[in-house]
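Worked example 3. Consider a protein that binds 2-acetamido-2-deoxy-beta-D-glucopyranose.
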Amino acid sequence: MKHLSLFSSFLLAIALATTSHTDAFTRNDFPKEFIFGAATSAYQWEGAVDEDGRTPSVWDTTSHCNNESVGGDIACDGYHKYKEDVKLMAEMGLEAFRFSISWSRILPNGRRPINPKGLLFYKNLIKELLIHGIEPHVTLYHYDLPQSLEDEYGGWTNRKIIEDFTAFADVCFREFGEDVKLWTTINEATIFAISSYGQGIKFGHCTPTNCSTGNSCMETYIAGHNMLLAHASASNLYKLKYKSKQRGSVGLSIFAFGLSPYTNSIDDEIATERAKAFLFGWMLKPLVFGDYPDEMKRTLGSRLPVFLAEESEQVKGSSDFIGIIHYMTLYVTNRPYPLVFPLNTNKVFSADIGAYMISTGNSSSFTFEPTPWGLEGVLEYLKQSYNNLPIYILENGRPMKHDSMLQDTPRLVYIQAYIGAVLNAIKNGSDTRGYFVWSLVDLYEIEGGYKLSFGINYVNFSDSGLKRTPKLSASWYTGFLNGAIDVASQDIITQLQQNNFSGSFSV
Ligand SMILES: *[C@@H]1O[C@H](CO)[C@@H](O)[C@H](O)[C@H]1NC(C)=O
Ligand SMILES: *[C@@H]1O[C@H](CO)[C@@H](O)[C@H](O)[C@H]1NC(C)=O
Ligand SMILES: *[C@@H]1O[C@H](CO)[C@@H](O)[C@H](O)[C@H]1NC(C)=O
Ligand SMILES: *[C@@H]1O[C@H](CO)[C@@H](O)[C@H](O)[C@H]1NC(C)=O
Ligand SMILES: *[C@@H]1O[C@H](CO)[C@@H](O)[C@H](O)[C@H]1NC(C)=O
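Given these inputs, the predicted complex is written out as structure tokens:
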């Protein structure tokens, strides 16, 4: 889960008149091969940051330098409690688990030699998943660049990252690829580039000077360019060296807001198309068609890197699927405004789009209206505009205050509505193949640390054993996955609230 504050300048208080009615459905209405899972990421789940040879990543540095507590030092202690968590998944009937690999656990300081204890942890985790019939979906990069590579050359702003990332991917494919068939190279690459390199929030650097000197209004697009090249390089390596034996697929993931015009004016409609070009086309056009969208080239001029012909060939077709991270819908209104100096780095990207984007959800105020039609729109748009590539929804979920605990009815309602949207999209021809709830358990969150959580299983962070307890949403998901729940909305929710459906509640 990422910086929702990016675009939400204020909260939209409009009635969501278009909330669509969802018919009753069950797990069996989805294709048999479709996978339902839940997700975590290494730094947010594992803890054990200085055990068995792991070295710090930029995320360790960021959480400590902000003096905001211990950061992910312990997190959920997944490193030691992975068997317990796999058991929890199995009890829920989860079909898949999405996690990420800590680069600096496997390759301390970013490069060889390999740390055998780091490898062993992931081999054990993968083995445990397979024993329980749970399919691993592995993300190679989830914000945790080895600090040493950041110090050495500035991380993703430098093309040296391409070689190092590819070497890291090579180790992972070779060591885990017999058991892992689904690989995401980079987590939500679009928002990662915007927030870390444009805004300088958290994991990158930001030099808020101005556009003539090389700085934050260039670095977003430079980092994004290097991400595309690094993804393509790793993906092509997989095709050459591993695919014929391992038969897996490799994709890139982007943050996919639902986008809708704020008014029905032509200007807002055109602004929405521009927003789609910047937020989707930026990465997907090169991946599917080999070059950046014209809207971006026109607006950004020399600030947008250029693909050499052979790079374009490398990037084109390098994503076997599109991974999307989806939480909310933005209303887009036309608002051309110039970049003003000194730069407000928060505004560079939306100034480039020439629009304000107004959010329906705001994680810090916990107002998160489900707008499932927004996801349906994204899936339909991807189907029509990007050759109907296979799609995995790698994150979807709703934040609540951590102490709101087990009765998380709003989260249950949210998840149910979005799964319904996925089904609608599939029925209309979208090749969506999987859905992962964010998150399996309460995690160390990017926004809000331990105070805000997305977990469908509660983690008691005050308890030395970090005890896990299923929330109402986990019971709903369990019932749904077992085919025991025929989603008919309110009835089921009331029943769950009264009867504690799975009978698994014990605080
Ligand atoms: C970090 O937090 C601790 C405890 O709240 C405080 O004593 C210390 O001064 C803080 N350090 C910095 C650099 O802000
Ligand atoms: C941009 O930065 C350069 C070098 O620091 C400076 O000379 C120039 O005046 C700045 N331009 C603006 C518009 O701030
Ligand atoms: C369903 O798909 C068709 C064909 O791609 C498209 O024209 C139509 O708008 C879609 N319907 C919805 C509700 O998205
Ligand atoms: C969390 O753990 C602490 C310490 O064991 C305990 O006092 C508290 O009741 C627990 N809270 C919940 C909600 O289970
Ligand atoms: C359901 O769980 C709540 C607390 O989680 C508890 O107070 C209540 O007694 C339980 N109901 C049943 C029928 O077990």
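Take a moment to read the result before moving on. The CA atoms of residues 256 and 326 lie 5 Å apart. The pocket of 2-acetamido-2-deoxy-beta-D-glucopyranose (ligand 5) is lined by residues 406, 499-500, 505 (CB under 6 Å).
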